Each structure stands twice: as C-alpha cells, then as structure tokens.
Amino acid sequence: MDLVIPKIDVVSLGPELILSIAAIFVLLVSVFLPKGRKDPAAYLSLLGIFFAFVSSIFLWGNPRYSFNNMILVDNFALFFNSIFLIAAGLSILMSVNYLEEQEMSHGEFYALILFATVGMMFMAAGSNLITIFLGLETMSISIYVLAGFFRRSNKSNESALKYLLLGAFSSAFLLYGIAMMYGATGTTDLKGISEYLSKAAYLKDPMLLAGMGLLLVGFGFKIASVPFHMWTPDVYEGAPTSITAFMSVGVKAAAFAAFVRVFLYSLWNLQPDWNHVLWILAVLTMTLGNVVAISQNNIKRMLAYSSIAHAGYIMIGMVASSELGTSGILFYMLAYAFMNLGAFGVIILYGRKGEENLDINDYSGMGFKYPGLALLMTVFMFSLAGIPPTAGFVGKFYIFSAAIKSGYIWLAIIGVMNSLVSVYYYLRITVMMYMKEPVKEFAGLKWSPSMAIALIIAVIGTLLIGIFPSPYLDLARQSVQLFM
Amino acid sequence: MTVTGFFFFSIAAVVLISAILVVVLRNPVHSALSLVLTFFSLAGLYILLNAQFIAAIQVIVYAGAIMVLFLFVIMLLNLDKEKRVGEKHPLQKAFGIAIAVFLLVALGSIVAAGVLYGNKGIHTEARVSAIGNTKAIAGLLFTDWVLPFEIASILLLAAIVGAIVLSKKEL
User: N or C: which end of chain A has fewer CB within 10 A?
Assistant: First the structure.
C-alpha cells in the first residue's frame, strides 16, 4: 500500500498554530508565576492573539484549500477569525482584574480561552464536516470548563453542568446529522456534498433531509435559537461574566460561521427545504427573545434573552440567501461583538465580589455617580437596540434590507417590530441610570488599565462601525464572494 | 436469514436491551455494568462490519479502561441507589415517551427505508482485507485525515486542562 503524504501547508494554519502554541506557553509560564498574580499570563495570551491577528491579515485575499480539503482558508474564515480574536482579546482584558478580585486568577483560564478560540477558527475554516465537528467540540469543552471556572460558586457550577449536559446532547444530534449526511451522499467533504447534490437526482432522499434537520438542531443549539434556547439564560447567568461575554459573541459567531458555510454553500440545493424552517425559527427566536427579555430583572438574564433575539435577526440574513444577506450576517456579527462585549464589560466593572449589582434596580442613579460609565452603557444599549449612529443600527439595516431585496417583506416587518419591542428593555437601563434615585450606596469603581482599554476599544468599535460602515461592509462583501 | 443476519439481530438486541438497562436500573454499579455489556456487544457489531481494529479498540479503551475507571469512581464515592429529587411535572413522562416513540418511528423508518444512494468509497471489503484493517486505518489517519487527527490532540489537551481546573483541590 502506497502512502501519499498530503502537502503539509503550515502557513494556512498560521492563526490556529500561533494560538495553540501561545496557549501551551501560557500553561507552562503560569506555573512559575506567584499565586494570585497571574496577569502576565493574560498579557502573554494577548500577544498570541495579536500575532494570530497579524497572520490572519497576511492570509487575506488568497483563498486556499489545505490538508487534503480539510480546511478552506478563505476571506470568510479570516473575517470570522478576526471576530473571534476580538472577542477573546476583549474578554481577556476584562478578566484580568475581575479574576483577581474573585480570587480566581489562574493561568489555565487564559489558556482555555485560547483553546476555545482555536476550536472556533477550525469551525469557521472547516471544509469537512469532521473538521467542523472537532472544532466545535474543542470550543465547547473549553467553554464548559470556563463556565464553571468559579468552582466555589453554586451558580457557576450549575451553569457548567447544564451547559455540559445539554451541549453533549446537541453534539450528539449534530454527529447523527453528519452520519446521515455521510450515509446519503457518501462523503463528509462540504465541496463533495455540494457537488453530489447539484446532480439533483436524489434531493428528496429522506435520509438526506433527516440529516439536514439534525444538523439544523445541532447548530441551532449553539446559536441559541428557539426552540433550542432553554439553556441560555441559566448558563449565561451563572458563568463568570467575562465568559458570558465571550460565549455570547464567540460561540455564536463560530456556530453561525459553520451554519452558513454548511447550509448556504454545501446544502445550497436544498435551500427550498430549509428556508421555510429557518423563516419560522427566525420569527420565533426574535419574538420569544425580545418578549421574555422584557420581564427579566437580572441584567445578565436580560442580555441572555437579548442574545437569543439577536440570533433571530442574524437568521433573517440566512433566510435571505443572497450575497447581501450573508455579508450582512458577517457585518452584524462584527458589530454585535463590540456592543455586546462592551455591555458585559460595564457589568463587570460595576460589580464586585459579594456584591455583583446584577439586579436592574441596582443601576438606578448610576448616571449621576459615574457619568462616564453610564455614558458607555448608554452607547452599548442604544447600539443593541439599533438606534443610529451606532453599529447595531447599520447591522440591522443591512440584514433587513437584504431580506426585503430577496422578497421576504413580512420577515423584515416582523424584524423591525421586534426591534421596537427591544427598545423598551434596553432603554429601561438608560432610564434607570439617569432618571431614578439611587436605591443603594455606591462602593466606588475599581478602574484598571486593562478594563479601560477594553471598554475604549468596544465603544470606538461600536461608534466607528456605526458612523463609517462602508469599509467594514466592503470587507464583509469580499468575504462572501467565494461561495455565492 | 443468513448467519450474519442472525448474529446481527441477536447482538443488536443485546445492545439495545443493555443500553435501556443503563438508564432504567437504579443502582449505579448495575448501570455501569450494563454499560460494559453495551460496549462489548457494540464491539461485536463492529466485527460483523469487518472493522476488527475498531472492535479491538472498543474493547480495550471503552469496555476495558474507561468502564473500569467508572466502576472504581462509583465504588469509591459509595453512591446509594438513585433517589428522586424534586417534583416532576405529571405530564413529563407521557410527553417524553410520546416524543421518544415519534423519533423512533421517524428515524427508524428513514434508516430502514434508506437505500444508500451516495458515492461508495474505495475501501471495499476485499481491499481492506488485502491491506489489513489496522494498516488501512493508519494509512488514512496519517495522510488524508491528519489534520482532524491533530485537532483531536488539541481537544484532548483542553479537556485534560479542564478536568484539572475543575477537580484539583488547590489550584
């Protein structure tokens, strides 16, 4: 038997390799750091993230398959890489002081964030269902542990356990879907599946459709779409806040990357079949997320339901099934990364050990005491609600206009009505901060340089993308040209 | 019924019954032992599929190493019989059974009726026997599938770090 060793194209793995090496290096270095003072590990991780970003930029514009078609390093993957790196970088910056305050400063925290990011990158770049699945598991296992990182907190343990059990369940659905796809088409290669389906002889094969449905369940769980959203509020509430931020942006973006690549590229010939399902799921997801968010009093739970609603808006971009819709998804994910990470950053800064200030009433009167922080929170809330001149507005605009151009006028109308509903609960925070008397003593904020940098990056990103959207939209357009 | 068919259906019955017992039995040790039986009989199914290497790995890794560790942990923790915690919604069981039956019928009919249309691979039974089972898998694993193989190593590293983070007394 002759073995043909495939070309080992290490350059195409640049970002993933750099991050993996950085993660292992962080693990080794943090052993020698004094207890409770592990922040050098964080800065080392940030260095790794920076170099991964640089290597992603170098790979831009030169799409290539490598490792025998296991991954496809195209602009789409690299655009998502930058979203993951932004999410990881900002979460690490927000975590440095937060972990020290909670007396949980350990190097493993940063290493696991880097491992999760590597998994996300493989999901975005995977051009084989097996690569996507392994990336998803690498990401999920790291996140399960990170959700339970505050080992002495019952809520954190509850969050990790719920996420692990339900996540394992959803991975099984995904894997069964992959198995059925393999049974129906004889390949797990995305290009192979798409070529097979383009022959159009067996499109009504029940095994093919069942496989597609199971894949939909697996991805739907990770993006937190209704009816696979049950875990979201509990997991987001109990996890360390910086991990909640990382999860709500990174995991969602990675799942959407794989979702879009599998459904809009590989299963494109089944588009008439999955489009109706996604239409209904998008409406349900938006509506349930927004309506339930209104009645939440815990700000982390509120943002959890809001993240469900945002998954619904992004699914509209998938239903539109056009180049505009897909580039809208990428643009929206970038905007969502900045505004959502920023909002969670404010929550981290406002709370402290033993007094997390997570109740919405705790925010009353905050605007008089900390005008700067309240202003930041207002920008993020306006952006999440989709009010100009912020990134959230432009993102929604592109997604809804893509839906209208593809003829889904009712879907766009439902989306706009939903974002009107969402204005209520986002602005409720602003009203609390500026128009209510404080209900409690303020203990003073502990600004730290890293947190300040994170919040400044987030607010600049939110406003810059909102005011000058065209360069970012161009980037998003260049990223989706390949598979439309 | 052919000899292979006879073996398939009898082993499949053992797999299913012991898998149900894992869930139904109240004593954790009994559950774990049924799981060992499930893994062993799965190995039998792999042999029927001409996948001897996978069958051996299944017995060595799952039925051997992992389940022995499982049993050790259960015995060390000295777990009692499982007790009911909390109230169940009265309709929960009915809904659960209804959905399970629905899934069984839906997926079962698809799998049963499924004529496999897909492209057939190059590794036919004769070819695999000519090369040798282990060699064929190794050849694929270290050429075409080398990247997933390496990603799996990162996955395992992350899992090991995670296990230590969650369970070590003093970090």
Answer: N
